[in-house]
Amino acid sequence: MISALRPKSIHRFYSLTNKTTPRSLASPPFTKKWAMMKTHAKPWQKFPKRGQKSPAYKSLEAALKLEDEAAAVGDATKLEAELANDPENHQLRFDLALAYNAQGEKLKAAEQLMHIIKTDREWNDDGARTKLLELFDAWGPADPDTARARRMLSGLLFS
Question: Which residues contact 121 (CB under 8 A, 6 or more apart)?
Fold first, then answer.
């Protein structure tokens, strides 16, 4: 699943920066060799410095980092079952938020992290709030789910 998402994310970067997608990124060998490229320089690190400063690049970089973290977490249904047995386990809830985000369920991911913030804000050195801000970066400022989750977070923090 991750190898299928990455080329789309890179195409999204190029479409948001009004650049044409290079043929090397559109070719099938790129998608097949993605796992091997993890040990080498990442393709998005080879972009010009000017492109690396754009919000689209930062969004892409954050999304790819979150995909790597979600791959290590596992399946959301298994995590949901474990969380039902231990609802106060913040690490399980945190992992579930990553899994939800990987599945595209953005608001569910944000709700899980906000539950951690609500019950124990200092957990993991304010890790839930930090991860929620990383999700916002990955989703991009124009995403309606980002705006909705930001409103929910500000209501939680300032009420």
Answer: 128, 129
Neighbours of 43 (CB within 10 A): 17
Q: Report the predicted TM-score, pTM, of the whole model to 2 decimal places.
A: 0.69
CA distance 135 to 108: 12
The residue written with tokens 């990553």 in the block is 98
Task: Specify whether domain 74-158 bears CATH 1.10.10.10.
Answer: no
Per-residue pLDDT, 153: 94
Q: Where are the domains of the chain?
A: 2-54, 74-158
* CB contact at 8 A, 119 and 85: no
Let me know: does 82 contact 92? Beta carbons within 8 Å.
Answer: yes
Q: Are 100 and 88 in contact (CB under 8 A)?
A: no
Note whether 139 and 108 are within 8 A (CB): no
User: What is the per-residue DSSP string for 60-82?
Assistant: HHHHHHHHHHHHHH--HHHHHHH
- Taking the C-alpha atoms of 109, 115, 120 and 121 in order, what is their torsion angle to the nearest 10 degrees? 60
Per-10-residue mean pLDDT for the chain, 159 residues long?
A: 50 53 48 48 61 79 89 92 96 96 95 96 93 94 94 91
